[in-house]
Design brief:
Elements lengths: L2 H26 L4 H19 L6 H26 L6 H9 L4 H20 L1 H8 L6 H29 L19 H19 L7 H13 L2 H8 L5 H7 L13
Helix pairs in contact: 1-2, 1-5, 2-3, 2-5, 2-6, 3-7, 6-8, 7-8, 8-9
Length: 259
């Protein structure tokens, strides 16, 4: 099969799964479940590409599949644990309240369809890396530490924040410990770094043109649904202004000294 055919099958599977997830959300009256599926969706797309690219270099395919599976499943399990027993995310609640009568079908397009389409577009380096038989080269090995740095910051950031919020004594406090001491958003930085790692693997296979994928992911994390959105909700919290003045927003670095 051609690249376009495989990519099209990936789209059909992703949208099919998103439709099933939408039906489940109607029964639960909770559109937040789409966030849980985000990481797993990439794992599914990746393994579909693995199965449909028999001529790709097996060593590179296994390298990529291992990294993507570890990242995607960890992310989904983290969000599942974080959201378990909690009400629908405030973003979806706001949209639901704005469209109470038509949200049941509008959510199919505004939430599940849109995220499914984004997931499919962003997944393109995962296919480009697996379809080409190009031999392993230095870029494959550079990708591993880039991914590992990203995984550390994302996983450590999520775990440290979860423990911080689980302690009632920290209510209303600003998390500025551990990896949060070096960046205000270690989880978002880590997520972006891992996608640049996936792109490096695709680049090693000749997929230089898929660079738009990590650019889109990084832009979403910094400008749309990640840093920008969270900063708006946090800026009024006592102590957060001081945190902003001493700590980088995205790329980790040593805290700035107070004047």
């Amino acid at each position: 099969m051609s690249f376009i055919q495989i990519y099209g099958i990936g789209l059909a599977i992703i949208l099919g799964l998103m439709t099933v997830l939408w039906l489940v959300s109607l029964a639960l009256r909770n559109s937040s479940i789409v966030d849980i599926f985000w990481g797993t969706g990439f794992v599914v797309a990746n393994w579909v590409y693995f199965a449909l690219t028999p001529d790709g270099l097996l060593e590179r395919k296994w390298l990529l599949d291992t990294l993507v599976t570890i990242w995607g499943l960890r992310l989904s399990l983290h969000i599942l644990r974080r959201n378990w027993g909690k009400p629908e995310d405030f973003r979806y609640q706001a949209w639901r309240n704005e469209n109470p009568r038509i949200w049941w079908w509008k959510s199919l397009f505004q939430v599940f369809g849109l995220q499914g389409l984004l997931l499919w577009i962003i997944s393109i380096p995962l296919l480009a890396a697996q379809i080409a038989p190009a031999p392993l080269n230095i870029l494959d090995f550079v990708a591993i530490p880039v991914w590992a740095i990203g995984f550390f910051f994302e996983a450590a950031g999520d775990w440290q924040l979860f423990r911080f919020k689980s302690n009632p004594a920290n209510k209303g406090e600003v998390m500025n410990r551990g990896v949060w001491r070096y960046t205000r958003h270690p989880n978002y930085f880590g997520d972006a770094a891992q996608w640049w790692g996936y792109f490096l693997i695709a680049l090693a296979a000749g997929g230089w043109w898929t660079v738009f994928s990590p650019i889109i992911m990084t832009t979403l994390l910094v400008r749309v649904s990640g840093v920008a959105l969270l900063e708006k909700t946090m800026e009024a919290r006592p102590g957060y202004r001081e945190y902003i003045e001493s700590t980088n927003a995205f790329i980790p670095w040593f805290p700035k000294r107070k004047k």
